[in-house]
Amino acid sequence: RKEGFDHFMLKEIFEQPRVVKDTLTPRLPLDVNDIVLDDINMSKEVLEKINKIYIVACGTASYTGLVGKYLIERVARIPVVAEVASEFRYREPILDENTLMIVVSQSGETADTLAALRLAKKAGAYVIGIVNAVGSTISRDADDVLYTLAGPEIAVASTKAYSAQLCAMYLLSIKIAMELGKISKDEFLELREELYELPDKVGTVLEQADTIKELADKYINSKNVFYIGRGLDYAVSMEGALKLKEIAYLHAEPYAAGELKHGPIALIEDNSLLVGLTGHEELFEKTVSNIKEVKARGAKVLAIALEGNDEIGKIADDVIYVPRTHWMFTSLLENIPQQIFAYYISVGLGNDVDKPRNLAKSVTVE
Ligand code: M6R
């Protein structure tokens, strides 16, 4: 049931404060100064021997993997490769008992992701699944499961499941780093406080839905849309571009901001739109200089920025602000406007939002 919403996608977008809360808070009990992951049984002994992590998934779930790569490498200092399953499974990856594989899947039935998991298990690697569908094949075949508690997702375009995957990845990254002594108890308490504030902050972004609809109407005739960012923002840009492609059928490409001048900038014309993700503020000046280059060549710029960043307002045509949080968690908040933007463009173009052409919810064929 759509419960008064025009589409399942919109309903699922608006469920996100609850989904974020449900995925995070049961694992962060206030009477224990630790993250409690009931279904993760990997021992400290096994974890300490892990010298390489692969995060393998398809589509949107693979972008959760990219976020995970940035986070785990930075806080736990273990090398991570994030890769799409359809490539990983065919390239004879190097796997052994000191490898951890994290597979991410909403349905838990994606054929390529399942094949990658089986390859890893055969080689003796330890496999953790971040899965939404309880009892699915991936959840049964993985050594351990971290369930995303998003509830059933009906719209083909993933929204709330992706947010829940990010939350699961936040928990797992912090847990691994704590177990390895890379995050102290005090740092953890600070992170926990921020995580508890995330559901309300997601709600604050949702309050801007009408304004984002106006921006969608303004930019609905864009011919080419480029999403750019650096670091975690680059991972977020991938999800933004995919959402626009799959439900709005607009040509959209994500680029690492620094790569623009190595080729793609040649595509920029007067009717191009650039969505600039600037939440990774350590690299703000660098990304802004890329945004300026594109603007000078005629593109319109829609920026997604952190509240209180006045600088970006002087450069971009429009800015959507999201609340500030710990740098590890900005990806979740920055992505919500991208979902709403793609949704309203799709509606405005008269597309079948919940069942976009040529796509299936669960890809169980290779
Ligand atoms: O069920 P999964 O998470 O394994 O599915 C992976 C992709 O097929 C899925 O995320 C797809 O990219 C969605 N249509 C994205 O909105």
From TrEMBL:
Highest taxon of the lineage = Bacteria
Entry protein name: Glutamine--fructose-6-phosphate transaminase (Isomerizing)
**Which organism is the protein's source?**
Vallitalea maricola
